[in-house]
Automatic annotation (TrEMBL):
<dbReference type="InterPro" id="IPR003812">
    <property type="entry name" value="Fido"/>
</dbReference>
<feature type="region of interest" description="Disordered">
    <location>
        <begin position="116"/>
        <end position="138"/>
    </location>
</feature>
<dbReference type="InterPro" id="IPR036597">
    <property type="entry name" value="Fido-like_dom_sf"/>
</dbReference>
<protein>
    <recommendedName>
        <fullName>Fido domain-containing protein</fullName>
    </recommendedName>
</protein>
<feature type="domain" description="Fido">
    <location>
        <begin position="96"/>
        <end position="237"/>
    </location>
</feature>
Length: 259
């Protein structure tokens, strides 16, 4: 069977980066705090992930302000809602990814897009470009590529979860299928993929914070090149984001351990 993700997994440097990320997650899962406080760590990871995802959209707010519910910016609120929604969507992601993306957009773009556009693919050719990626593909081209992405999600692959999550993430950012909140939807879908396909089943890793710390737009532009080197650079970026996200979650665990 044709397995394009397995081909990506063999690009130079990818296997080593994926293995490093896997080892970092395994070390995190052995942290003693997680024996009793795993749900609390996951909740804190979700909050920090939403904050970082909004920051990548250009709205950077202090974590303490989020905790005090003082931030009413629609981008931030959308990221928080999308993050909260992930726990209810796990099993559906494999079976009905179209439904999950529509729901993620509906919650992420509320207050940013007209109500009748929530959860619906964009019909216009215009889409915001906060990362400087260049013009979005046409609505028709985006629709065709999204269908290809759904096919990838539905077919068996020998590729690691991180490779699949990287492709899901990049395609949704690049295609901008909804025309609003596409970055938030993409990062939510990527985290959901890491959870459902086994790398981070308890949703502990603050991977979005890793993306925020790294040259995110530059790595996406490398992916856009379509070359094996560019795609490999993006997957390596995503692996590094996981390693940095593990560091953030470890800090959460250490803080809880200190009480």
């Amino acid at each position: 069977m044709n397995d394009p993700l397995a081909v990506i997994a063999q690009f130079p440097g990818v296997a080593e980066a994926v293995d490093e990320a896997r080892q970092a997650v395994d070390r995190l899962y052995r942290h003693r705090v997680l024996r009793r406080a795993s749900p609390a760590v996951s909740t804190e990871s979700s909050l920090r992930g939403a904050r970082a995802s909004a920051a990548l959209e250009g709205v950077d707010v202090p974590l303490d302000s989020l905790r005090r519910d003082e931030v009413h910016d629609p981008v931030v609120q959308g990221a928080l809602r999308a993050s909260a929604e992930l726990g209810r969507m796990g099993p559906t992601w494999r079976k009905a990814p179209r439904q999950v993306l529509a729901r993620l957009h509906a919650v992420a773009a509320a207050g940013l897009a007209p109500e009748d556009a929530l959860g619906r693919p964009r019909a216009t050719e215009e889409a915001p470009d906060p990362l400087g990626l260049g013009p979005a593909p046409s609505a028709a081209d985006a629709s065709v590529r999204i269908e290809s992405l759904f096919s990838l999600l539905e077919q068996p692959t020998k590729a690691p979860a991180l490779v699949l999550a990287s492709v899901v993430h990049a395609e949704l950012v690049v295609l901008r299928p909804f025309g609003t909140a596409d970055g938030v939807v993409a990062r939510s879908a990527a985290r959901l993929t890491l959870v459902e396909y086994g790398l981070d089943p308890k949703s502990l890793v603050v991977v979005e914070a890793g993306h925020l710390e790294l040259p995110y737009g530059e790595a996406l532009r490398a992916y856009l090149s379509g070359s094996p080197e560019g795609v490999a650079q993006w997957v390596q970026h995503c692996a590094s984001a996981v390693v940095l996200g593990v560091r953030e979650t470890t800090a959460i665990c250490e803080a809880m351990q200190r009480g």
